[in-house]
Specification:
heterodimer; A: 110 residues; alpha+beta; 4 helices; B: 881 residues; eleven-stranded mixed beta sheet; ten-stranded mixed beta sheet; 23 helices
């Protein structure tokens, strides 16, 4: 699977999933996605930051500017209660979606 | 312009902040990625390039994040911008709407600011809701009166009550202070209060300590608490004020304390009290005999947890107990506990609330009118709405646009209205009756602004409700096919529009009937014959200060002094006729009575007659007609035969079937009646005749009196010489009561004039707004019907016929609205019956006049669209798509 081909909407799901583990900044989130997908997914191609800001405007996450370990200003994102709820919903619908795709591909339904 | 500027700066500032934040965020990412690459072993240059690549181009990323942040943001802001844009695109509508809103909200804000300051706002004292007034009321009188209390009762209440932390009594006093350098003598507003006064109100002095109950005794009472204003004005705010002396002309007072700035009692008085001295009860005020004097205002602070009802029960218990001992003191008298705020507002409260209701009607008419205008606009814009909905706007999006527009309008109306109110309050304050309590605290403050904005928002929501309801009920009202043209779907609009106009007319009718009733009452009052000519008469009260010890001496000496003053005043150029009157001056609100007896007749006990001491020319000054006998002359003096002149009302009562001339009555001694004078309305045009008796000043022991002067010049030119004449015999005497009789008369009708003027303004506003409504609806209907009219004209209809059909439509709204309005007025006008003078609330002439005015102005408003309809060119009308 090509690294850039994230389905529309799945990036939000991944971001929320990563932030459930704890507050993180943009670079950290991108790294986490890379690690957790065993280098299979790469979210830093110009879509990561717009997605984060969109989630924040929607109220699923919030952010604040903090000083990082080496004294640089970084924006750290935290998931909100609404974000956790949304993650649950999206996770379920993703599972449903994946299952459906799988069924079609396997062709066992007749 | 302001909103645009605000929007612009806000946008700029926001964008700049967002940009720096995005820059920082991405810079951090770049840095972290570069570090990571370095640890992986890349060369510094390559590490950075790889990092930049991974970000996918810093500029593009910044751009897309910015797009997220600035485009998607608060929908409210976007709605607002959209609303402003579309209001700008319809300047005619916007202007009319703003005008209507500004006028009505401005009127409402003005009246509210007055009513709030005078009636509604809590008094400016700690825990003011526990402050009450305790007074006595005569149960046989239905007319409300100031609830004053007798000293005897106050003293018993004070010791027997269980409901109040304290009770305090307040009595009138005034202190004349010695003039400073070149100043004229000055009289300070003062009050004689019991020591608990300051505790009850809950305000401690700024400097010093107030007096105590030990000072309420003759001999120890020469102490004073002064206001902050007096401290600054007369003592320059000097810090060693406590212990200094306030030099009164009769007695001097040691200053014990200064109250903090802002402390005032009466609250918000235009002429604030400056000195409080201890109340001293005379020995005869401490026992219950057969004379009653109700002179005290009593205030109290309820104990924690005690309600007004409980306190009332407590006072009833005390009254029952006292009545058992001295029943004649309590025949028809009860003690009344009421919230202090209501007591302070007093009678003013009734008409103030009436004005507030009237201005509420104005606001209501404006709201209905705006609903109509917005409805017209929705129809006119249906093409735009259709396009937007086709582009994916949900119905809620469209509704939100409408609400945003309405709110922008009403808030702008609130802003302009507040400005209008700010300007008109000063005008109204000048026109307001002088006796309105708390008048000095009237103004636009946060409370008034908040109420104004709340009213504006409520109005905005209300007038956007009609189109919104229509929207959600009839999706088809967004008329896709014929966007903007008359077809079936607009029927419901038309019906609603008609109903709204009818409602406006009905509301305007009620306002106009109210205005008519008040106008008619005022006209009647000004036409009342008061029995004399109050124009060009100056009155100057001369009340010499005489201590009790010198009273007898003053009674001997002063008559001569008064005569001398009169001689000097007669010589002043501009004084046509001059006289003294003691007892009561017409229209000034004072009178004195004394017992009368008629030999050979049995009069009811306590029969009183007004007692006046006058010099010979008094009736010539007033211009009151002599009905029989003669005026007094200089020959009626001490030692000659005691004589009396009575007025017609007294003659009718005591000598109904005989000629009173030459008869003798007991009126401070036996006196022969030498003249009968026409009755005058001593207490003003709305009061009944008083029975009056007049004796020669020379045959009385007057210590002071009032100069009444008929002038041939302006009072201002004459006054300095008159004052000089008085001071030549009474040096250093303060002259606080100088006024013309017409000024007193103005004061008596001020409340009526004020109410009439305001109601007239409201009535005119109502009729103008209703006419705007009629015009707007008809103009729109004509626009919709243009093709139809074109067809009719093409088929041969005469322009006059077309015009008539439009006018008929207007007449229908007018007549139905009028009918509803007249019926409403019929019911509501009984509520204001108490304010009317010799006008019945159902006076048919007024209802007829209102109907005529409304129909005439409504048809005039309809004439413009009717003409336009009649001028429709069939060719153009039919060719239009």
């Amino acid at each position: 699977m090509a690294k850039s081909d994230l389905l529309q909407g799945t990036l939000d799901l991944l971001l929320l999933r990563v932030l459930v583990l704890g507050p993180n900044h943009g670079w950290g989130i991108a790294n986490r996605i890379r690690q957790m997908s065993h280098e299979g997914l790469d979210a830093s191609q110009g879509s990561l930051y717009p997605a984060l800001h969109r989630l924040e405007l929607r109220g699923d996450i919030r952010s604040e500017m903090t000083l990082s370990e080496n004294n640089r200003r970084a924006r750290v994102y935290t998931i909100t209660a609404a974000g956790r709820r949304r993650l649950e919903v999206e996770r379920r619908s993703w599972a449903q979606f994946a299952l459906s795709i799988q069924r079609v591909l396997d062709g066992t339904a007749d | 312009v302001l909103t645009r500027w605000l929007a612009w700066t806000r946008g700029i500032a926001r964008r700049r902040r967002i940009d720096t934040e995005i820059d920082e965020e991405l810079a951090f990412h770049l840095h972290a990625e570069t570090e990571a690459n370095l640890t992986r072993g890349l060369a510094p240059e390559a590490a950075r390039r790889a990092a930049l690549l991974s970000l996918g181009g810093v500029a593009q990323t910044t751009e897309s994040v910015r797009a997220v942040r600035t485009l998607a943001p608060d929908a409210v802001w976007r709605d607002l911008r959209h609303a402003l844009r579309s209001l700008r695109a319809a300047p005619g509508f916007t202007l009319v709407a703003l005008l209507v809103l500004t006028l009505s909200i401005g009127a409402a804000a003005t009246i509210f600011s007055i009513v709030d300051a005078v009636v509604l706002r809590p008094l400016p004292f700690p825990d003011a809701d526990r402050l009450v007034s305790v007074g006595e009321r005569n149960t046989t009188r239905s007319a409300p009166e100031p609830h004053l209390a007798a000293p005897q009762n106050f003293l018993d209440w004070r010791t027997q009550q269980r409901s109040f932390t304290a009770l305090a009594a307040i009595g009138y006093a005034s202190i004349s202070v010695r003039p400073e350098r070149d100043q004229e003598p000055e009289t300070l507003e003062a009050q004689a209060v019991t020591a608990a006064f300051f505790d009850v109100l809950g305000v401690a002095p700024l400097v010093g300590r107030p007096f105590t109950i030990d000072h309420e005794v003759d001999g120890r009472a020469r102490v004073a608490v002064i206001s902050y204003g007096l401290w600054q004005r007369r003592f320059g705010g000097r810090p060693d004020i406590v212990g200094r002396v306030l030099p009164g002309q009769l007695a001097s007072f040691e200053i014990l304390a200064v109250m903090p700035p802002g402390f005032a009692w009466p609250v918000g008085a235009t002429r604030p009290t400056e000195v409080w001295i201890p109340s001293v009860f005379r020995p005869d005020e401490r026992v219950r005999q057969n004379s009653y004097g109700y002179r005290l205002e009593v205030i109290g602070r309820l104990r924690e947890g005690v309600s007004i009802d409980l306190a009332q029960g407590d006072m009833d218990r005390i009254t029952t107990g006292l009545a058992a001992q001295t029943p004649h003191w309590f025949a028809n008298r009860v003690a009344i506990v009421e919230p202090l705020r209501e007591h302070v507002a007093g009678e003013v409260r009734r008409w103030m609330l009436m004005l507030l209701a009237a201005v509420g009607f104005v606001l209501l008419i404006a709201t209905v009118n705006l609903a109509n205008l917005v409805l017209v606009r929705v129809s006119a814009r249906s093409r735009e709405l259709v396009v937007r909905s086709a582009l994916g706007a949900s119905r809620w999006d469209l509704v939100r646009t409408l609400i945003a527009e309405s709110l922008v309008l009403s808030l702008a109306g609130a802003a302009f209205g507040s400005l209008l109110a700010w300007g008109s309050i000063e005008v109204l304050r000048a026109a307001m009756p002088a006796d309105v309590p708390r008048a000095a605290s009237i103004g636009i403050d946060l409370r008034v602004l908040a109420a104004t904005i709340a009213a504006a928002i409520a109005s905005g929501l209300a007038f956007s409700a009609a189109p919104v309801l229509l929207f959600s009920r009839h999706p088809g009202s967004i008329d896709v096919a014929g966007a903007g043209r008359a077809h079936t779907s607009t029927h419901s609009h038309n019906w609603l529009r008609g109903a709204l106009v009818t409602m406006e007319v009905a509301l305007a009718t009620v306002l106009l009937v109210g205005a008519g009733l008040f106008l008619a009452s005022f006209a009647r009052v000004t036409r009342v014959d008061i029995g004399f000519d109050p124009q060009h008469v100056l009155t100057v009260r001369v009340r010499p200060l005489v201590g009790a010890a010198n009273w007898a001496l003053a009674q001997q000496r002063h008559r001569g002094l008064l005569t001398m003053v009169l001689e000097r005043v007669r010589a002043v150029p501009g004084v046509a006729v001059a006289a003294w009157v003691g007892g009561g001056v017409p229209l000034r609100g004072d009178f004195r009575t004394t017992e009368i007896g008629v030999p050979g007749r049995v009069l009811p006990p306590d029969e009183d007659l007004d007692f006046n001491q006058i010099s010979p020319d008094y009736f010539r000054v007033l211009g009151a007609p002599l009905l029989a006998g003669r005026f007094f002359t200089d020959a009626d003096r001490d030692g000659t035969e005691p004589v009396v002149i009575i007025n017609e009302a007294a003659a009718r009562r005591y000598f109904p079937d005989e000629n009173p001339m030459g008869r003798t009555i007991e009126f401070l001694g036996a006196r022969r009646i030498v003249g009968i004078i026409g009755s005058i309305r001593h207490e003003g045009p709305e009061a009944a005749w008083r029975r009056q008796g007049f004796v020669p000043l020379e045959q009385s022991d007057a210590v002071g009196a009032t100069l009444v002067l008929r002038l041939s010049r302006d009072a201002r030119d004459v006054l300095p010489a008159v004052k000089a004449a008085i001071w030549s015999e009474f040096p250093g005497l303060a002259l606080p009561d100088i006024s013309t009789l017409s000024e007193y008369l103005d004061g008596l009708v001020a409340e009526r004039r004020f109410n009439m003027l305001l109601l007239a303004v409201f009535g005119i506003l109502g009729i103008v707004i209703a006419c705007v409504g009629i015009y707007g609806v008809l103009a729109y209907v004509v626009l919709l019907r243009t093709p139809e009219i074109g067809v009719r004209m093409a088929l041969g209809a005469a322009p006059a016929h077309i015009r008539r059909s439009v006018l008929q439509r207007a007449a229908m709204h007018l007549v139905i609205g009028l009918a509803i309005g007249l019926a409403g007025s019929w019911m509501l006008s009984t509520l204001v019956a108490g304010f009317l003078f010799e006008v019945r609330p159902h006076d048919p002439w007024i209802y007829a006049a209102v109907s005529g005015t409304l129909v005439a102005s409504g048809l005039a408003a309809a004439l413009i669209p009717a003409r336009r309809a009649a001028r429709v060119d069939p060719l153009i009308a039919l060719r239009a798509p």
